């Protein structure tokens, strides 16, 4: 497997909370070095074992804190699960195969027979494989749970009805300082209300949800900095140095965390699938040139105090900016 991509969405030098949607497969990403569009939903790279180990640990610790359903229709469930199985197999470079009934993962060594309409795992078999030990004690409770344990991306399903939209399913085993239980069943505005600076985006919620369902697929990016490369930052999980009151900035322990998110709509089912894939890159690798350091410094300076606090950067920002500005001059 290839190394993970290093994404630098800060290169525009401005931090903003916006939809930031790019059409998957066709629309160029302006801050990418090659300016090319993003074409895939799922990425399989050499961090695959670490991601699956993290997901398995979350599953083992308290699956109910990460995954759930809220009034998910049979039609939308089937549409999302069918897309998931078909697309992860097509994009896995042979790691995953899917014949319409059974999904097999050659790295994990398990095969499941899935009923996509009911959303159930009808049978699960295991064989010895390179990563079979990672999930040896894991028993998927349903098809979305099983499928989510085969990819590095976290998953969510958005539904829409006569009364509005809501988050109908979550399988988010590597959240970044938020609790999926707080979002389940809530509409777009309620889900994003805690995000500092989300007001203008939330004001367009009905049009945005309609675009996601009827005009996609799309890809978007969100970013921040962390003082650890741990993937699961569920508020109820074990604490670590990230966003700890005593943690201070250290460039050798800092990471750029970029979330690559895709949104695929199913108009016939009035809903959409949302994938979330975090990329953690050592900060010293993410800002290797003076231009990159200067762009990140500008983007951080453009944050409001509320956004700095929301991103957990209040105590880190002064030393972080000093380090970036020195690097920009080197």
Instruction: Name the structural class.
Output: alpha+beta
Main beta sheet: 7 strands, antiparallel
Strand order of the largest sheet: 1-9-10-11-7-8-2
Mean pLDDT: 95
Give the number of helices. 11
Rough outline: globular
Question: How would you describe this structure to a colleague?
Answer:
With 330 residues, this protein is an alpha+beta fold. The protein has one domain. It contains 11 helices and 11 strands. Strands 1-9-10-11-7-8-2 form a 7-stranded antiparallel beta sheet. It has a 4-stranded antiparallel beta sheet with strand order 3-4-5-6. Strand 10 (255-266) and strand 11 (271-282) form a beta hairpin. Helix 9 runs antiparallel to helix 11. The longest helix has 17 residues, at 74-90. The two termini are 34 Å apart. The mean pLDDT is 95.
């Amino acid at each position: 497997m290839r190394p993970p991509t290093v994404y630098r969405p800060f290169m525009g030098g401005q931090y903003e909370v916006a939809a930031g949607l790019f059409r998957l497969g066709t629309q160029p990403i302006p801050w990418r070095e090659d300016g090319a569009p993003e074409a895939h939903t799922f990425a399989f790279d050499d961090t695959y074992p670490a991601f699956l180990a993290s997901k398995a640990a979350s599953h083992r610790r308290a699956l109910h804190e990460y995954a759930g359903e809220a009034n998910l229709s049979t039609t939308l469930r089937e549409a999302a699960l069918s897309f998931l199985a078909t697309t992860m197999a097509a994009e896995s470079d042979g790691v995953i195969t899917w014949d319409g009934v059974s999904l097999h993962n050659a790295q994990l060594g398990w095969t499941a027979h899935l009923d996509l309409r009911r959303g159930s795992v009808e049978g699960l078999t295991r064989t010895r494989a390179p990563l079979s030990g990672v999930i040896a004690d894991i028993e998927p409770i349903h098809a979305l749970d099983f499928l989510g344990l085969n990819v590095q991306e976290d998953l969510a399903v958005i539904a829409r009805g006569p009364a509005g939209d809501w988050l109908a399913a979550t399988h988010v085993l590597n959240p970044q300082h938020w609790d999926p239980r707080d979002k389940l069943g809530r509409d777009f505005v309620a889900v994003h209300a805690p995000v500092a600076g989300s007001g203008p985006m939330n004001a367009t919620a009905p049009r945005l949800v309609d675009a996601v369902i009827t005009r996609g697929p799309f890809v978007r990016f969100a970013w921040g900095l962390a003082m650890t490369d741990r993937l699961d930052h569920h508020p109820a999980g074990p604490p670590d140095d990230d966003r700890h009151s005593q943690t201070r900035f250290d460039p050798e322990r800092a990471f750029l965390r970029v979330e690559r998110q895709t949104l695929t709509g199913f108009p016939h089912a009035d809903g959409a699938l949302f994938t979330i894939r975090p990329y953690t890159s050592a900060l010293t690798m993410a800002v290797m040139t003076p231009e990159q350091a200067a762009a990140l410094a500008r983007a951080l300076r453009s944050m409001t105090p509320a956004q700095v606090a929301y991103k957990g950067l209040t105590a880190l920002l002064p030393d972080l900016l000093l380090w970036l500005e020195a690097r920009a001059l080197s």
